[in-house]
Every structure is written in C-alpha cells, then in structure tokens.
Inverse folding.
C-alpha cells in the first residue's frame, strides 16, 4: 500500500489551480489566429493570443471569471492518503488556498436561490474513479459560468444515430453563439445514462478524446454553417477544438451531452 501525505495533496492541488488560471496545460502551444480570417476577426484572435501571454507573464487570471473548481480523480486500490478523514477535505483545502493565494475571484454561492457567497469558492466538485495499482492521478478544471450555461444534454432516439447527435451539437452551438465566449473547445459525450453523460463529455475535453471519427467529420461539416466566430462576432472560428468520447448504453437510449468551454480553456493534471 502506498500512502500519500495529505499535506502534499493540498500543496499540489493549490499549485495546480493557481497555474490553471494563469498558464493552463490545455492552452499550451495554442494560437487563436487561423488562415482565412478577415481583418476584424484576426484582430480579435491577436487580442486573445496577447491575453494568454500577459496572463502568464504578469500572473493575472486569463479571465475575470475564475470559475468553479472541478476535480476528476483516478485512484488505485493500493493507494491511500494521510492527514484527513476524507480525500475531499484535502482537495477542498487546496482549492481554498489556491483561490486565496492566487488572488482569484471566488464565484461559488452556497445556495442556488439565496446566492450567498462566502468567499471560499467551495466546495470543489469532485468525481472519483477507482482503478488497479497504486496510482493517484488528478485532473483539475476551472469551469466558468458563461460556457457552462450554454452546455446541454439531450436524450436522443437511437434511430437518429450519428446524424441526431451531430444535429444536437450544431443546435447547441447555434444557440450558444457568443454567450459562452467562443471560440469553443467542445466536448461531446455519447452513451451512458442521463446522469453521467455530461461527465463523459467533460472527460472528452480533459482527455482530448477522438473516439468516433465519423461523428467528428459530420459535426465539423455542420460547424461550417455557423454564422459567427470569435466572441460571437462575424467570422470563421466558432470552434477551436472538438473532442468525442463514448460509453455503452441501454438498447433503447442514446444520451448525448455537449460540454462547451470558452476560449479560456483551463485544465491540467497532476500525478503523485
């Protein structure tokens, strides 16, 4: 059995979420400038590129919406931890310290109706996956409200097949337009059940999955019909990247989810 010190988990989580807001792995090597852009969209793309450089150099958040903290853990059955009665306690402590020390906006309210913000950005939204061995792998994602609000889920009839999913993705993007700050990083989940298909879509983003080339080609063809680009202005760059992940499902079902992420796509991984 491998025991991971709880103080190390707190420190690693803290450093990860600070780094995600300033210099995320998910944007490494990315430029928003693309061939064929008209002058207005090229100017906007240049601004986004400059924003990434300034965030990294000046330690300023990529976006004023520093989002909610989402954590996806893969933990082996021969790994455990010390320092707390639950792993969630350690992760929440790391997240709280990150948002305080990193001077990040705290956006989480404690009740969806009362809207009270206690200034801690807690809780982190944590998802566990057990596996063999003694690994401890943690993906972090900073999820802003704008792109989360325009994400969507639909229970599609299986007879609609890939065309039904492609149409759903297109309609979601068409409805989202500039509200979620494109160009979008799009995660598509297909299969599973009503409750877990959004997690499949978000895992597609984290893992940069490409599990169905035929569906991917269909969606990319439909994306050409969108009439907006960067930040919803006229242009050709509504979508920066498309990822697809599938899971088994019931014979009578085909759940599908579209997880949209804005141009400030902030995710990264630590392995202890």
């Amino acid at each position: 059995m491998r025991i991971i010190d709880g103080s190390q988990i707190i420190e690693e989580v803290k450093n990860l979420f600070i780094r995600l807001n300033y210099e995320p792995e998910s944007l490494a090597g990315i430029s928003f400038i693309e061939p064929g852009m008209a002058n207005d969209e090229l100017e906007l793309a240049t601004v986004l590129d400059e924003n990434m450089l300034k965030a990294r150099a000046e330690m300023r958040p990529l976006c004023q919406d520093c989002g909610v903290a989402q954590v996806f853990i893969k933990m082996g059955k021969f790994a455990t931890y010390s320092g707390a009665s639950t792993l969630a306690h350690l992760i929440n402590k790391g997240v709280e310290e990150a948002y305080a020390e990193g001077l990040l906006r705290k956006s989480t309210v404690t009740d969806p109706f009362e809207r009270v913000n206690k200034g801690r950005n807690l809780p982190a939204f944590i998802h566990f996956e057990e596996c063999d061995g003694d690994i401890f792998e943690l993906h972090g994602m900073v999820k802003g409200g704008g792109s989360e609000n325009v994400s969507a889920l639909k229970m599609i009839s299986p007879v609609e097949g890939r065309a039904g999913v492609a149409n759903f993705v297109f309609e979601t993007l068409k409805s989202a337009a500039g509200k979620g700050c494109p160009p979008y990083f799009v995660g598509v989940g297909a299969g599973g059940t009503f409750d877990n298909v959004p997690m499949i879509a978000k895992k597609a983003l984290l893992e940069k999955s490409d599990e169905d080339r035929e569906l991917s080609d269909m969606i990319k063809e439909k994306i050409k019909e969108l009439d907006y680009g960067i930040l919803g202005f006229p242009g050709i760059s509504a979508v920066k990247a498309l990822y697809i992940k599938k899971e088994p499902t019931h014979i009578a079902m085909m759940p599908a989810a579209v997880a949209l992420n804005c141009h400030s796509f902030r995710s990264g991984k630590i392995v202890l």
In short: The longest strand covers residues 239-249. The first helix runs from residue 6 to 22. The chain has a mean pLDDT of 96.
